Amino acid sequence: xxxxxxxxxxxxxxxxxxxxxLAADLGEVLADRGRTAAVVDLDWLGWMARPGGDHExxxxxxxxxxxxxxxNFIAAGxxxxxxxxxxxxxxxxDDLRRALPxxxxxxxxxxxxxxxxAERLRKRDTGAILEGHLKExxxxxxxxxxxxxxxxxxxxxxxxxxxVTLEVLEALGW
Length: 174
What we know:
alpha/beta, five-stranded parallel beta sheet
């Protein structure tokens, strides 16, 4: 494994706050600045469609999959990581630290007003999925507010995505 700490940012926030868009833009700006950033939406490392709904512990699956791909990204030249996921508990942070032993993890929470979140969700979701996400967005936001796991917080409402990206990079010192 890599001996130096690998700068790693975890973008967290409720559903519809803009985590994935922000993570992707961070990757683009970092590449423009000469960095090789691995950008991973952690939801995809735990998403399995199965008959009957839920399956094994999603967080455990994400942790195992992230641990498996981490060395591949390092071998491919990644010098920093940008991860996106709703991180609800200190245990989830501990899971990430176990999966990424060489990571220097900083958590950035992206926030958006409930109105902005609802508008974004209505543009991408429909039917029962929309209704579920609207409800979960409020629940997750309350959980994140209570947990206060973030090292930094940025607002992603009316600002241009690039401005939010630059604010995150400044906070990180990247």
